[in-house]
Amino acid sequence: MDALRTPPTSPTAQNPSPAPGRTPYPRRWAALAVLAVAQFMVVLDSSIVNIALPDIGIGLHMTASSLSWVVTAYVLTFGGLLMLGGRIADLRGRRGTFLTGLIGFAAASAVAAFAPTAGTLIAARAVQGSAAALMSPSALSLVTTLFTGSERAKALGVWGAVAGSGGAAGVLLGGVLTGTFGWPAIFFVNLPVAVAVAAGALRYVPRSSGTRGRIDLPGATALTTGLAAIVYGLSQSHDKGFTSPLVLTALGLGAALLAAFIATERAVPQPLVPLRIFRLRTVTSANAVMAAIGAATVGLFFFLSLYIQQILHYTPLKAGLSQLPLALTITTAAWLAPRLAARTSIKTLLVTGPLLLTAGLGWLSTASVHGTYTGVILGPALLVGAGLGLSFVSVNVTAAAKVAPSDAGLAGGLINTTQQVGGALGLALLTAVATSRTGTNPSLASVDSGFQAAFLTAAAIAAAAALIAALIAPPHRPAHDSAGDQQGPLNTPPPEPRLSVPKPEWTSP
Description:
Domain Major facilitator superfamily (MFS) profile: 31-477
CATH architecture of the largest domain: Up-down Bundle
Order of helices and strands: HHHHHHHHHHHHHHHHHHH
Protein name: MFS transporter
Region (Disordered): 1-22, 477-509
Helix content: over 70%
Number of domains: 2
Strand content: under 5%
Membrane topology: Multi-pass membrane protein
InterPro entries: MFS, MFS_dom, MFS_trans_sf
Shape: globular
Radius of gyration: 22 Å
CATH class of the largest domain: Mainly Alpha
Structural class: mainly alpha
CATH superfamily of the largest domain: MFS general substrate transporter like domains
C-alpha cells in the first residue's frame, strides 16, 4: 500500500514509462489534468484571435492580408518548430522542456496584449508559437508514457477531446473576451492560466532525465524556413498571381529547403525526424489525415468568424456565443469516441469523422448574404463538431499506437506538426482562393462569394482526409480487456521497451 502512496525515489531513467508489472505513477491523473489544461491553452490560441481580428485591424491599422498573419505567425512557428521541441523534450527532459515553453508562452502573451504596432503583435505571436512548440510535444509524450494499456486509451481520449474542443472554444472565448473587455484580453487570459499550470506541473508532473544525443539544428532550420517560404508564396499568390516571379521563387525555395531537410535526415546520425518512424502505417496514416484536418479546420474558424461578423453583422460577443453549439458538439463527440470505437473500430471513426466534417463544410459553402444563423450556421456547426470530435480522438490514438516509449516525444511532435503545418498551408491556400473570388473592389456579395469558395475548398480537403483514412489506415478493432495493462478500447498493446533503455523509476516532482 505504501508503494501506491509514494513513488520510488531512485534516480530517473532515460524513459519515464513504467515497465510492465511495476506500480504506475500514482499522480498520473492529476498530471494529466495539468497537461490537458496546458494543451487546451495552446490549441485555444490558434483560434482565439479569429473573432477579435476586425477589432485588432482597427486598433493597429492592419490590412486584411496582414491580419491573416496574426493567425499564420502562430501556427507556422508552432508547426515548424514542433519536431525540434519534441526532440528537445526527449534529450533534455520532458518536464523541464514543458516548463520552459510555458514561461515563454506567458511572456509572449503579455507582449501581445500590450502590442503597440502590427509588427510587434505578429512577432509576439511567432514567439508564442515557438514556445508552444516546446510545450505541446513534451506534454503529449508525458501523457503517453505516464499511462499504459487501457488507461492510455482513456488518457488519449481526454487529450483528443482537448485538442478537438480547443479550437471551437477559442472562437467562443475570443468573442466573449473581445466583446466585454477588448481584444487585449484574449492574450491577458493566458497569464493566470499559465501560473496555475506551472504550479500544478511542479506538484504533480514527475521529473525525468533526457537521453544522450545531439539536436539536429540544420534539419530544424531547413524544415521551418522551407515551410515559411511555401506559406509566404501561397499568401502572396492572390495579389501577385501564382505565376509571378516572387511566388514561384518562394515556392521553389520552400520545396528545395524541404528536399534538403529530407536529405539531411537521411545523412545525420541523430536526425530531427528519423524517417524510420514512417514505416509504421499507423504513424503515416494518422499524420496524413491530421494534415488535411488541420488545413480544413484553421481555415474554417478564420472564415466562419469573418462571415458571422462581416456578413451577418454580429457583434464580437454574439459571434463568440454563436459558436457554443460547435464547441459542445466537439466535446460530446470526443467523449463518445472511445465508446463508439469499442463497438466498431478506430478506422471507422478515422473515416467517419472527416466525412462529417466534409458534409458540414459543404453546407457552409451555401452561406449567402441573406443567410440566417439557423439556416446556414447551426446545422453545419453540429456536423463539423461531430466530425472534429471523432477525428481528433481517432487520429491521436492511431498516431500513438505501436510507437516505442523512447520515441514518444518524436511521435507527439510529429502529429502536432502536421496539424499546425496543415493549418498554416491550408489558411494560406484558402485565403488565396477567397481573395481571388473577392476581387480588388470587394462588395458584400463578392466577399460572400469568396467565403463560399473557401468553405467549398475546405470541404474538398476534408474529403481527401476521409479518402486517405479509408485507403491507408490499418484496420484495428479494439479488444475489451480484463487486466489493467492489457490491450483495451482505443488502444494497441503497449510497445516493448528497448533493451538499451534501463527500467524506469518514478521520482516525485
